[in-house]
Amino acid sequence: MARSPALQVMVQAVMKAGRSLRRDFGEVEQLQVSTKGPGDFVSAADRHAEDVLRAELTRARPGYGFLMEESGVIEGTDPDHRFIVDPLDGTTNFLHGIPIFAISVALERSGVLVAGVIFNPATDELYTAERGGGAYMNDRRLRVAARRDLPDAVIACGVPHLGKPSHDLFREELSRVQAQVAGVRRFGSAALDLAMVASGRVDGFWERSLKPWDVAAGILLVKEAGGFVTDMKGGDTMLSGGSIVAGNEHIHPSLLKLVK
Ligand code: IPD
Ligand code: CA
Ligand code: CA
Ligand code: CA
């Protein structure tokens, strides 16, 4: 598997931030935690990892801009390139000692996603994808699952935070989906949910009220693994609109019908 220089830069940065998260995961009780809203936490670990990512990526690609969860928009001198960064996706899991969390970094070139990296430092699973170059977990090429029928399918989802209008919609969607599928899972990291669709561990995923950094790398990963990704109306506003449905060519349209 050949990685472009840009992807290598992203992988190196993510591995370094992964070491920071692993250290903080070992001392989670000592971390400063605050909330951004009901059930929406941010900790010193999120900030440490974001600082590492920003420093490493800036050192290697000084002109590129950023969209980062904790620091927001950082304009670069190169208007064509920006990194979309979630330094810790799955903060709630992290703070509870649940080893399901990840770093997610995507690279946009002229508004097109060209590379994505998702790394779970607790399991050492490194997911990478480049536009036109396929998707990988560590060195293994990924392919979405082949299941065709909802009754055989395991579907991942995300539960919108309390207080979001989509919280009530979710209950209705869940009751429709769970009546038709083999199982529903809620892992707590949208980036890893998408990585699991790409690797065929789950057959589909849907969620509302997400942010670009939750899904940017995962969208590319699913597409490069042969899957389909749209927003919940079947369009392509997944980055700006916040809703997402992913799956293989059979499960994606069936799931979309149930949730839209
Ligand atoms: C969260 C995770 C979670 C999703 C939330 C996100 P964070 O990201 O992706 O799975 O359900 O909507 O906010 O805050 O842990 O980076
Ligand atoms: Ca967050
Ligand atoms: Ca996130
Ligand atoms: Ca985050």
From TrEMBL:
Its EC number is 3.1.3.25. CDD domains: IMPase. The keyword NAD does not apply. It catalyses: a myo-inositol phosphate + H2O = myo-inositol + phosphate. One of its GO terms (biological process) is inositol metabolic process. Belongs to the inositol monophosphatase superfamily. This is Inositol-1-monophosphatase. It comes from Hansschlegelia plantiphila.
